[in-house]
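ESCALATION

Customer reports they have been waiting on this structure for their group meeting. Please prioritize. Original submission:
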Amino acid sequence: MSVLKLKNSYTRQLEVFEPLQAGRVTMYSCGPTVYSFAHIGNFRSFLFADVLRRVLERNGYEVRHVMNITDVGHMTEDHLADASGEDKLAKAARELGSDPFKVAQHFERAFVEDAKALRLKIYRGGETDDPELHPRATGHIPEMLAMIQKLLERGYAYVVPTGEVYFSVAKFPEYGQLSGKNIEENEAGARVGVREEKKDPRDFALWKVDAKHLMQWDPHSDKGWDKADYGRYRELAPEGVDKTIKPGFPGWHIECSAMSRAHLGSTIDIHTGGEDNMFPHHECEIAQSYGAFGFTVPGPHGAPDEHHARKTFSRYWLHGRFLLVDNKKMAKREGNFYTARDLMDPVAAGRKDLAAKLEAAGFKGGRVDPLTLRYALISNQYTQQMNFGVDLLVQAKASVERIQRCYERLREIIGPGTDLDIAETASDKMIELVDKYEREFDDALNDNLNTPNALAAVFKAINEINAMTLGKAEAVEAMRLMDSFDEVLDVIDRRERSGILTKTEIEQRLALPLPEFDLLANAELDSAAVAGFVALRQAARKAKDFKRGDAIRDGLKHRGVMIEDVPQGVRWKLE
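Update from on-call: job pushed to the front of the queue and completed.
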C-alpha cells in the first residue's frame, strides 16, 4: 500500500503521516455551534474529517476521534480574535423565544439526526452516545477556568478591571504561523473598534463578563453550577482562580483547547476544521495551549524541521476549503443558503420553492437522498474549493445509482445466504481487476485524500465488472471490492428493497411495541422498520382511525416506501 501524505496547514507542505504513538491516532475536529441547523458548508468540513478518519483506519490505525459541541455561544463577528459582536446563542434564543440552553439542546438533536443520515462514523453505533467523543462546552467550564489560571500564572494572560481575562499575543511570537496572516491586521480600526481595556489590540478574550448573558458561571462560588462540574472544578483548581476574575462565561477559543486536552491528552496527531477556523480560532488554540502547558510536537520524519519542536499541540493541521453555491458565497441574502435538511426534506423545512426546483431536476418528491448529499459533499478534494449546485446533486445522484446498480447485480448473482468466503476460486482476470482498482483507490486517497481520483478508480472498476459475465465466485470477489470502496464512501443502500408482509407476520408484529408515528420522518427504513410502521397502520385501521392509517401510508410514501394491500397481506417496495 502507498504511504499516506497529508497537506499540513502549519507548514503548508505535503507531509508523510506519522502518528506520535505507533498504530494509534488521536484526532480532534471542530464541531458545530448549535444555534441553528447545520448548513452544507459545515457538513463539508465534517465529512472531510469523516473520510480522513476512514482512510486512517484503512491504513491500519486505531483512531480516537473527538468532535465537540459548542453550546456556549460565541460572537457573531467570529472572524475576529476577540469576537466582538452579539452572542449567537443569545441571538437565536431571542428570536426563537427560548433560553440558550434549550436552543442548544434543540439544535444539537437536529444536528445528530442530520449527522446520522449523512453517515458520519462518529455518530454510528456506540460512538453516538459517548460523551467523551462529543464533549459539550458547557460541561467543560472547570477545565477552561483551570487552563485560564495556568495562563495567568505563566504570564500569558491578564485580568482587566471589568473582570475579563485576555491572552497576551505579544507573549507568543509564533502567533500567525498557522494561517500565515499578518497579525497587525487585527489592530485598532480593523472592522470594529478595539476594546479599550486590552493592552494590545491583537489580544483575545479567554473569559468574558456580561451581566445580561444568560449563561453564567461564578469562579468563586458554587452559585449556578452543576454540582458534579463544580466538584471537578475544585479538584482541577484547588486554590480557585484569580480573585479579580468576575462571574461570566468562556471565550470561544479556550473551549476547544480545554476539550481536546481533556479527552485526547496534551498533544494530538491531527486537528481538522474548515478554513474559516484557521484564523483566529485555531491560531488562538495553538497560542493558549502552548502558553498554558508548553507542550510541543516534533516534525514528522523527513520534514525539514523533524529534529525541532513545533510550538503547537497538534502535529498535523488540516483545513477544508470553502464551499460556494452557484459560484457565490453561500448567504441567505443571495438565496443560495442551504442547510442539510433543506435539501433532504425541503417541504418540511419550509422551502417549497426548493422542493419544486429539485423535483424538476429529477429528485422524487423534491427530496435529496442523504447518500446523494454525502457523495456530493465528498466528491472533490478537501483542499480544493467546491462549487455546489443542483447540477452537482444531479451528477451525484447518477453516480450513487451506478454504484447501487452494480451492488444489486452482484447481490442477485451471489444469492441470499451465500458465504462470501466460499471455497471457489474467481478467475485470474477478476482477481487482477480487484487488486488493480483497490490499489488505485488507495493510492488516490493516500495522496492527501484525492477523492476525485479515488472515484475514478471506482467507476473504472464498475465499467469492467458490468462488461463481464460473472459466475458466483467472480461476483463474490467483485462484491468484496465494492464493500472495500464503501468502507470509505459509505453510499451503498444495503437494505432489502421489497417484500410481502403476510397477515400472520403483521399480527405477530402487533404483539410487539409499536414505533412512534413522529419517528417516521427520520427513521432508517430497513425491512424491520417498515414492518413496524405497517403494523402501526394496521393498529390504526383496527381502531377505525382511518385518517391516521392514511397518514402512516403517506408518510412511508414520502420516505420512498410504497405499500399496497394484497390478499396475502401488505406488499412493500423501497423506491
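Sent to customer with the following note: The chain is about 40% helix and 15% strand.
Escalation resolved.
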